[in-house]
Amino acid sequence: MKKILIMLAMVAFTLMAYAQGKRPEPPTTDEMIEMATKELGLSEEQATEWKSIHEKYADDLKSRKTAKEAREKMDTELQATLTENQLETYLEKKKERGSRPARGPRE
Known about the structure:
Largest sheet: none
Number of strands: 0
Strand content: under 5%
Helix content: over 70%
Shape: elongated
Order of helices and strands: HHHHH
Radius of gyration: 20 Å
């Protein structure tokens, strides 16, 4: 009887874990820059600047303690590289998405 109950419990836990599914991974830096290039029409120079800015803050974004501040600083630097039209589009897209970064397709 105990074996049957243990087996049922294991099946139940397995089903619950399976039902929760897997969280999608956040896009890579290159994927984010590719999306921004399409959405905002970034030039090659701007895309290069964006990549270096993302790399500059990469370590700080991994830590929960420093992520919020790093994201705000990074966002300010990214915005400084944009033209007026690009900035307007960027702010509209950001407002549509909320504060979360875009989730690009994974291949």
